[in-house]
Predict the structure.
Amino acid sequence: MKIALTGATGFVGSTLMDLALEEGHHLHALTRREQDARQDVTWVRGDLADHAALKRLADGCDAAIHVAGVVNVPTRAAFEAGNIVGTRAVVQAAAAANVPRFVHVSSLAAREPELSDYGWSKAGAEAEAAKAQGCVMVRPPAIYGPRDTEMFELFRAARSGIVPLPPRGRASMIHVADLARLLLTLAVGSEAPAGAIYEADDGRPSGWSHEEMARMIGAAIGRRIVPIHMPRGLVGLAASVDRGFRGTKAKLTPDRARYMCHPDWTARADRQPPASLWQARIPTPEGLRQTAEWYRAAGWL
């Protein structure tokens, strides 16, 4: 099949690209920068604001997988541009090219649009994606695996033996390879009904507590760690300090602090993909260990 892919050079997108090529598909892949030639990949220069590029991306494709989006930008307007307006443009390009299947990568944050600008923008993106022909959506929980720079911060913190955490809560997790396999399955051959919204995870009921997640990461790098839960006010203060020092490049923004302090980011059992369609294969403790090995081999740890 020919698959149009946004976000192809990012963490999830690059993993998905590798899997799709292994299974013999051809990709039209959106990229902002020049890329090395790759067999069965047609690179399309442009971004989500480039309508001509999106037209070329979707042309002749059997499915589209929309991975691209923004997770940490300084303003609500930037979230709107990257997630809502960008998704609208991809949907319009897919419709013009009569692409019959559209797989949209959302976020559990879309369940709580009042909590953060990020969640508000992901809910808005879902509303746009729902207009696409044959649309199926996936709301991933915390994604980890090789190449990830977000969860890596916790691995790096664990080296000191102390991992700062938000107030007590729970979250689900999923390995990027399992997520990529689900997205490709939905795009190329599943019977998932149009309009379905799936919340996929590693198969652990009710997810993991923040403390359990921190201890698993410590075990993955061979360190016994002390998890420290910070009160909500202190997380917010840390976000303000980070914004003061790093400005628009801050990693911990007030918006992200509000998101992090929510107590329940677990995938809902009634929104799991049918077992006949997909099941997670990578247990999280083993996946974290493999991820730590990748970080070491890449010189990150």
About this structure: The domain at 2-143+172-207+265-282 is CATH 3.40.50.720 (Rossmann fold). The mean pLDDT is 95. Residues 1 and 104 are 18 Å apart (CA to CA).
